[in-house]
Amino acid sequence: MSTTVQSPVSALPETPDALSVTTHRAGPVVVVSAHGDVDAATALPLRDHLRDLVRPHGPDLVLDLTAVTFFGGAGLTVLTDVRAAAHRAGIGFRVLASTRTVLVPLRVTGMDTVLDVLPIPPRR
């Protein structure tokens, strides 16, 4: 059974560029789906939400960025930080990305070779 939980990130001021996040369990992984902009204003709350989900020997974490409309340097920093936290906890961290908005920054910085980037959602 999958439940959806609105994260504190969705409490950001309502603007066309606001970021909302849903979190649910999908079998052996926790999936966090981001919708909107990942920028300097939204990156820290997103990072904090993701880091709160990282538990030693806990479920793997998947960050779904397929509905992200802007992804800048602050978003790359979030990915680096969460990847390190997941590694320390001994869990997997994967990124679901299929749009140029996210894939181009990952490729340009070489992060696509460091992160486990999936082109399709994990099976539920």
Structural class: alpha/beta
Q: What count of domains describes the coordinates?
A: 1
Query: How much is the radius of gyration in Å?
Result: 13 Å
CATH fold label? Transcription Regulator spoIIAA
Low-confidence stretches: 1-16
Q: Strand percentage, roughly?
A: 25-35%
What is the class in the CATH system?
Answer: Alpha Beta
Helical content (DSSP H or I, runs of 4+): 25-40%
**Intertermini distance:** 10 Å
Can you write the helix and strand succession as a string?
A: EEEHEHEHHE
CATH architecture: 2-Layer Sandwich
As laid out across the biggest beta sheet, the strand order is 1-2-3-4-5-6
Mean pLDDT: 86
User: How many strands in all?
Assistant: 6
By DSSP (H or I, 4+ residues per run), the number of helices equals: 4
Which of globular, elongated, flat, extended, rod-shaped describes the shape?
globular
Characterize the structure shown:
By secondary structure, this protein is an alpha/beta fold. The protein has one domain: STAS domain (Transcription Regulator spoIIAA), CATH 3.30.750.24. The protein has four helices and six strands, in the order E-E-E-H-E-H-E-H-H-E. It has a six-stranded mixed β-sheet with strand order 1-2-3-4-5-6. Helix 1 links the parallel strand 3 (29-38) and strand 4. The longest helix is centred in the middle third of the chain and has 17 residues, at 73-89. The protein is globular and about 30 Å long.
